[in-house]
Design goal:
By secondary structure, the chain is mainly alpha-helical. The longest helix is centred in the N-terminal third of the chain and has 41 residues. Helix 1 packs antiparallel against helix 2, helix 1 packs parallel to helix 3 and helix 2 packs antiparallel against helix 3. The protein is 82% helix and 0% strand. The protein has one domain. The termini are far apart. The protein contains 3 helices and no strands.
Length: 129
Amino acid sequence: MMDQQRVSELEYEARQAEKRDKLNARLQLWSLFFGLVSGAGLVSVQTGTLSSLVALYPFLAMCLARYAAHSERVLDQVNKQQSRRRAGSHLKAFRDAVLLSQVVATGLLVLRAPMLWQRGSQSRWQRHS
């Protein structure tokens, strides 16, 4: 049977591994975020109705932000168990970046909407003529 010391060591190692995984996931989150922003930027400069796909960006960004929040909560729990300070600045920076990018994407959509509506009404008018 394992003694209490060995069980404590194994628990500590497991917490450290989980912490390491969550810290490494931060880089992946930022990579996904920049990929999402780049994709939304690419779609937004397209002509026609394809550019309206930028409207999906805020929803995709919200999903990514929720995942980041969950990951940071798990990291906070691991840090609490080790009686260390809480994580949080990463999550605040990520939240601010997501909010800013959502505002920009929404602004682009609002600016492009009149052109899309005009093109749509012109194509309907041409079909009926």
